Fold each of these.
Amino acid sequence: MEPKRKGILLVSGLVFLSFSFFEFLPAGPWLDASFSRGISGLIGLSLIYLSWFEHVFNEFGVVPAIEMWERPESTWKIVVGIGFVVLGLAWTAGNTSLGGILPEPAAMLLMLIGLLITYTGFYAFLVTDGPLKEEE
């Protein structure tokens, strides 16, 4: 059932994400179509994340506990680096001409994702090498 669920989550996430690039969604509660596009993009990214999580950790879930990581002592640096890259993409989407190509809420969604990735990496550091490390 899991491989089928991963595929369904991925495809439906890509469909919802693609809706955010077109302006045929109905206007949201404030008569603003960008709200509907943002919600569609957020749902799409959430479904893609759930598919990725199940692919990487071989279980359905949302929050990757540190115990699920293979080598958290070394991979937290990579996670923080990826978080900073996504934050840079968010800045680029909001402050350059690239923002005209992407949907309006793209910068905000990228900022949210980047912050969550960065915070997860910093938490892994605190638990494995930092002050929150449990003494044996």
Amino acid sequence: MIKNSFKYINVFFLILIFSCQPIDKVENVVFDYNQLSKININAKQKIVNELYQSKFIDPYIDHSLSKSPKDHLKEWFESNFEINGNQNLLEINIIEASVKKTEIPNTDKKKYKEKTIFFYEIILLVEFVLYDDSNFLLANVLVESKRTTTSGKFISLFEYERIIDNMILETLFDFTNESKKLIQEHMINYVF
């Protein structure tokens, strides 16, 4: 009887010890546009043309996201893309802002256990065009940024959203830095 009591006490303490282990808390991805590049252009007007329309077929998933890459681009244009001047028109054409999700065979058995995994790809493609008041083309820049990642096939919804948001944020960092660099190169006379 005493032997059984020690057995139950040992089991109780083991459960207690394991239940006191720290839980890894995964943070949400935070989109802080203040951390992204800021651009100042000599123009009196800025127009954003949404040429890209989400595709509602596989493998495209940007239409199903709570906030699409196109929405993030528009927020960046609004908060970090300033125009200062009394002449010129800046036209921003969003050509592509897609996210694709494809099921592919797993070739890296060390990273994932499943036979198939998900492959994600994001593409941002934007054209910046500067016109003078006579509608004469002064300068234009085409900026593209791509990223890919993978995930296991059986992940939680929270993990899925975190993977997508993280990929969008990293692509935005790449895109904004590349935009600033190319705009300063090709629109040097119109950048503050």
Amino acid sequence: MKKPLLMFLASIALATGTYAQNKTEKKERKLEHYVGVQINELLRQVFNLSGSTTPVNNNPYLLVYSLNSARSGWGGRLGVGYTYRSFIDDDGVNRRETDINNMQLRLGVEKAFKLSGKWTAGIGVDGVYSMNDDRTRNVIRAFDTATTITKTDISSIGGGAMGWIRYQISDMVEIGTETSFYYVTGDQRQDVSITKRDFNAPGDPLRTTISKIDNKITEGIFRLPVAIYLFIRF
């Protein structure tokens, strides 16, 4: 009788020790991962803010990720934004085909601070890159039908300072916003080709004229803290 009892007590002690060890390991987490997604559109649908004077959200980074040291708060951050749209407008006379392909990336370092039991904040610097590729084909149906194709490529690179603040809803869920100021420089290239029939030449041939634009872009971009992110910590 004593032997089974001793074995049972030993099993409880072992399980308790294992649980305590796992709990200690959980407390001694060295790295914290955060994955966030913008929820502005979700909040707008839920609370019906379409008619309000809410500031325009000009933050293009839909998905964000950060990896921080649990002890020091130092870490790295990544942001990604991508937009693709393709649509056709046709009223019987004018047909317009549009393709929009835009991508934004950012990569940086940050330092997180614990403000209170529920609030945390952070500051850091980012490097940013953006690429906008738009193409429009416009056809006017008439006696002298003309086709205009416009290709616009805008690429920029730069960087700057940022800051964020978050509120902890639960052990794994946080909500927050961020602000930033980036200085970027880049190129804007645009090709416009117009094809139409030349009635002044024998046989009325189709002729294409091409014009090119190559501009330099330099700007400072300040983003207000209006983008709301929902974060999962693991």
